[in-house]
Amino acid sequence: MTVLAVIGGQWGDEGKGKIVDLLTSRARVVARFQGGDNAGHTVVNPKGTFRMHLVPSGIFNPEVTCIIGNGVVVNPKRLLEEMAALREQGISLDRLYVSEAAHVILPFHLLQDELEEEGRGQISLGTTRRGIGPVYADKAARLGVRMADLLDEEVLLSRLTYLVQTKNAVLTHLYGRSPLLLHDIYLEYLEYGRQLAPHITDTRRILYQAWEEGKNILLEGAQGTMLDLDFGTYPYVTSSSPTVGGACTGLGLPPRAIQRVLMVCKAYCTRVGAGPFPSEEEGEAASRLRERGHEYGTTTGRPRRCGWFDAVAARYAVELNGADALAITKLDVLDEEPVVRICAGYRLNDAVVWHVPHSLLLWQSVTPVYEDLPGWQCSTREVRALEDLPEQAQAFLQRLEELVEVPVAIVSVGPGREETIIRKALF
Ligand code: IMP
């Protein structure tokens, strides 16, 4: 019996979807614990290619119960659309449950996200404009609407009445926009509640029971450690906790339930949106990584910023998450590189440091200290065992392990399930 958390060790888009999909064959429950439809997971399996935003990647295994936990923020319209698309491809959604305590993204959250981003001008964060910041802000301010509220006419009306009034005051007075119509929102969301009712439940209990029964449970992180609200490159972060602590508060599982943490990192780094990224490349190397790695956002289609593996940030992520194994994804994207670089330290003023800075100002002033390793310049796509990798690729992975101080358990060499090297079983 294992409760395994799969956490992003970089700035999101590490390929967690594929790793979760791979590991679900041994899991009985897969649970999302934070974020919303700002996340985008691409899953390629024998049933097809799927782009998921909210539904856990475990949905393709008929024996797996999938949970959208209380820490997730749900846009019900988008969830229903995603469910309909999956159903159309023959995937059953009978085992999908949404926490009654998950907060609901409402139309003004999307509008607010957009207006606030525009208002920030030069210092905009580059959000996905999915209403994530505003909905988490309302949750903390205790103004929010939760999934259970969609199931009760009176409760929904009373929660919405005050909230819409407050939002309309801001929309009309601060932004000069027309007010939103309470009744329209009420009717629309009541209908979403009606459609989602069979799925809305106390997900904490399902998880607790599964844990007590000794079932394998997989906790699926969205975004990545460097986007964590507290420990990321604030303010260029998301508004949730993608680190392992978020799994406890976002699901109601006690910390001692989580026995293993698998941290997923790409063999290089990417970031979408603004903010510090010390090992970023801007020239030809970035274009090569972007094109070979198809580094365009699943959610927004934006080209991702690309650079080399950042071992300083990865080591920090290991400490924060207590990671005990690494999954290195997209190794094949480096197949043609004559030289592969690893950022092994940061230069800050005249010194070289091995830890991440504590302020945005310092973050913005560090420059990478690279170790250059010879590339392997041949395809790794067909390789299925670590020792069959070209010598240089083995040396690259070994150096990552040394710098990050955690063993590599999985290496992904292509998008398909079979394009994977499994060194150590995690369940
Ligand atoms: P938000 O989560 O939409 O508020 O966006 C805040 C920051 O997190 C922006 O820089 C986004 O690009 C980034 N972000 C949010 N979700 C993801 C994701 O799933 N992958 C990568 N970056 C993300």
Q: Can you lay out the helices and strands and say which pair or pack?
A:
Layout: E1 3-8, H1 16-23, E2 29-32, E3 41-45, E4 48-52, E5 65-68, E6 73-74, H2 76-88, E7 96-99, E8 103-104, H3 107-120, H4 132-140, H5 153-173, H6 182-196, E9 200-201, H7 203-212, E10 217-220, H8 244-249, E11 260-266, E12 268-271, H9 284-292, E13 305-310, H10 311-321, E14 325-329, E15 339-348, E16 351-353, H11 360-365, E17 367-374, H12 391-404, E18 408-412, E19 420-422
Parallel strand pairs: 1-10, 1-11, 2-5, 2-10, 5-7, 6-8, 7-9, 11-14, 13-15, 14-18
Antiparallel strand pairs: 3-4, 12-13, 15-16, 15-17, 18-19
The structure holds inosinic acid (IMP).
Count of helical stretches: 12
Distance between the termini: 7 Å
Gyration radius from CA atoms, angstroms: 22 Å
Largest sheet: 10 strands, mixed
Query: Strand pairing plus helix content: what structural class?
Result: alpha/beta
Number of β-strand runs: 19
What amount of the residues lies in strands? Answer: 15-25%
Low-confidence stretches: none
Q: Identify every distinct bound molecule in the structure, by name, code or SMILES.
A: inosinic acid
For the largest sheet, list the strands in their spatial order: 9-7-5-2-10-1-11-14-18-19
Rough outline: globular
Describe the structure.
With 427 residues, the protein is of the alpha/beta class. The protein is 32% helix and 21% strand. The protein has a ten-stranded mixed sheet with strand order 9-7-5-2-10-1-11-14-18-19, sandwiched between helices. Strands 12, 13, 15, 16 and 17 form a five-stranded mixed sheet that branches. A two-stranded antiparallel sheet has the order 3-4. It has helices spanning 16-23, 76-88, 107-120, 132-140, 153-173, 182-196, 203-212, 244-249, 284-292, 311-321, 360-365, 391-404; strands at residues 3-8, 29-32, 41-45, 48-52, 65-68, 73-74, 96-99, 103-104, 200-201, 217-220, 260-266, 268-271, 305-310, 325-329, 339-348, 351-353, 367-374, 408-412, 420-422. Bound molecules: inosinic acid (IMP).
